[in-house]
Write a structure and sequence with these properties.
This protein is mostly helical. Helices cover 53% and strands 3% of the residues.
Length: 156
């Protein structure tokens, strides 16, 4: 953006003015900067008190340049946060996972039908067969509640 504001006419109040003037964000984009911050455009127009499209004053451009340069030099003090994160990560490595007594039985139960809480279907015909069976069971339960004769379940 610094290169952009030095390269051509900068405006306030719009992205372009039709005579070569562009907003600072578009100027940065044309020079390789990849920003899509509409909030910058609103802040720039609010800072310059733009009522309509006009050229930015030298004072506004100097202030923007100073703010951009200052943002490049600014390094927030993250020392405490970085130390705390590193300490938590280290503690996680030191402490082994607690044995809950549960074990992975997926290999053992893989071929046993109905062992999973949620059955995942990889084929459409398997899903359709399971759906048909569930609908059949639902019909049987509804018939039993209404006192209609017993239906024989079909095997799928």
């Amino acid at each position: 953006m610094l290169a952009g504001i030095d390269s051509g006419p900068i405006i306030v109040g719009a992205y372009t003015d039709g005579s070569g003037g562009v907003c600072p964000m578009l100027a940065a984009h044309r020079r390789g900067g990849r920003t899509s911050l509409a909030s910058f455009a609103r802040a720039w127009d609010r800072y310059t008190e733009a009522q309509s499209t006009r050229r930015a004053t030298q004072r506004e451009l100097r202030t923007l340049g100073a703010m951009l340069e200052a943002s490049l030099w600014y390094e927030p003090d993250r020392g405490d946060l970085d130390r705390a994160v590193a300490e938590l990560r280290e503690r996680g490595r030191e402490r082994p996972k607690r044995d809950t007594g549960e074990r992975d039985r997926s290999r053992e139960l893989r071929r046993r039908p109905g062992w999973a809480w949620l059955r995942v279907f990889r084929r459409l015909d398997d899903w359709q067969a399971a759906l048909a069976q569930a609908e059949e069971q639902q019909a049987d339960q509804s018939a039993a509640r209404l006192g209609v004769g017993e239906r024989t379940p079909e095997r799928v």
